[in-house]
User: What shape does this take?
Amino acid sequence: MADDFHKPTLFAGSTFEAFQGGEDPAHISRLAHDTAAALLSRVRADPDAGVIDRLIAYTDVNGIDAIAELWSRSSARSLPGALWRIYLLRALTRQDPEQSSFIYQRGADLSRTIDPVVAGAPNPTGPEEITALADQILRGLFEGDFAVALDRAAAFCRLMSSGCASLADDAETTSEERATALTTRALRFHSIAAELTACARLWRSGSLD
Assistant: This one.
């Protein structure tokens, strides 16, 4: 049995920084939309806690690559595109909860918006709290208000973006390479936040396909 175990795929920070969502609808697979819609409607119609737990832990067992094959090339403003981004954010957070919580806390400390309240992590936010937040956001897609879950994820991304940008400023005088990497990551988080906010609007209008 041990030989059959598939170790989850980890990804370097550079993978996240280079991540680009599909933008051209001509390249969207119909399968991605069909599987996303079928999964969501089936689970939300009968939100069994055990099933939701397995969906949340899916990438822990099968790896993020299993989800990427289905949804990563979908349009940023689509149902599969939204699901992919939430799973990606959870995987990134769980892979390095110490760093993620540090970045998040920096962003929350600097925030002058309601994003810390919308995201919903306790303050202060440590590794356990940031991991729980990532799980709560993903769970909200299946058993709560879908648009609210997207809004929480967008707020999370804006705080992470702010934290990365602040740390990039700190690193400018000591490591130009680290400053550049953090700036790139900040831009990725900022872009994903905007995409998830757009998806929340589309969901509320009944237009997220």
In short: The chain is about 70% helix and 0% strand. Residues 23-204 form one domain. The chain has one domain: 23-204.
